[in-house]
Amino acid sequence: MEESYESFAGVYDLFMDNIDYPAWCTYLTGILKEYGIEDGLIAELGCGTGSMTELLAAEGYDMIGIDNSPDMLEVAQEKRVESGLDILYLMQDMREFELYGTVRAVVSICDCMNYILEEEDLLEVFRLVNNYLDPGGIFVFDMNTPYKYREVIGNTTIAENREEGSFIWENCFDEESQVNEYALTLFIKEEDDLYRKHEEFHYQKAYEPERVKELLEEAGLKVEAIYDAFTREPVREDSERIYFIARECTK
């Protein structure tokens, strides 16, 4: 979790403009409403530049965005100024986040949970979520699957070139540790029209869905459903992203 998207933060949204965040928000809010959460306070773990936080706030939820990257949060705060939405941003590590009270739901998207490299840390995140959920509150999050790391992105190179900047994204998946290393090389156009090179390294871990379920239950959460992403269908062998829905049931 030391990686904080320092250089990438300023161009993150540029290179992520192929993601249909409104459709993603529709899926997420559909799940929340299915469990009776149509308004109220929601915390988003790993909110990044606040793209989803903004959309959820526009849907009428009172949002708290949590991220450990000051650079990403700076972009999120700029968006908040432009939109005028009432969003609270907190710079915290999700492994030790603190809230002022409980919330109706906690959400996390874009495989943020895969950045937790140790099981005991993932368990601690789940325990904290359970602690800060209202009685019966809902936890919704996604994860990349072992299949995706092993068969789709592991040991591949992704590159993109644009006027504002370019990136080379090299992946290396270690089967023994189940950790995928992202070596990110950025060439970012600056005010003097020169492109400056930046390098970052990020790490994500592949977790088997059944093990994640066990950790959620150990943390005191009841697993309500596990879906193939953006559907209500069961997880398949070739699912690349999956969604977990868990409920607080111990208070």
UniProtKB/TrEMBL annotation:
Pfam families: Methyltransf_25. Residues 42-137 form the Methyltransferase domain. One of its GO terms (molecular function) is methyltransferase activity. GO terms for biological process: methylation. The keyword Transferase applies. Keywords: Methyltransferase, Transferase. It comes from the Bacteria. This is Class I SAM-dependent methyltransferase. It comes from Blautia faecicola.
